Amino acid sequence: MIHPNSVHSQPKFIDMRNIMHMDEKWYNSTKKNKTMYLHPDEDDPLRTVQNKNCIHKCMFLSLLALPRYDAQGKCYFDGKIGIFPFVRKEPAKRKSPNRSRGTLITKTINVKRETSKAFLISKVLPAIARCWPREDAGETIWIQQDNAPSHIRHDDPDFALAVAQTGLDIRLMNQPPNSPDMNILDLGFFSSLQSKAYLRNSKNIDELVSNVVKEYNDYVQTW
Asked: What's this model's pTM, rounded to 2 decimal places?
């Protein structure tokens, strides 16, 4: 990203230390088709999914920033702000062989603008305030989002009020249209994280959420 004040003189790139990328993605519990290499005497693996419509999936909200390293090259901030599943708990309406009626089950949430705002205020802002490097707390922190209809405006008053309570200068900005190279999540992080989640067996939404969150927390950035 080029600094806007240097476009007409000597263009300079922004180091993006204070810019974090935010986006959503559907994560699936398994692939429709999988290639496996087996020993001649090994039994075929059992897959309990009846068809592709029964594959569990869940949408997650993810945030990444530029990692920080000290003079000795040791990472003191890995850039991972957090990953948040769009799920809710509700009692089961019917009994089944695996559970009784009224048992709390996990279901996915349809992401609308109100949902996106609620997650930003209740989950994203506290996560930023908790893990953002203290030496950069005085700078403006930008959250870059794409232009999806479910995302709130950059001047949303409820978001501004919640930011004021954190003591940080956090602002929203939209990703330039038709520019996937401006978001590290779309460039490769999402696909890499999904491939790691495929290596774990997820029988339901709860296990899928647990596996994706674990892979996110264990992920090591090399950029």
From this structure: 0.85
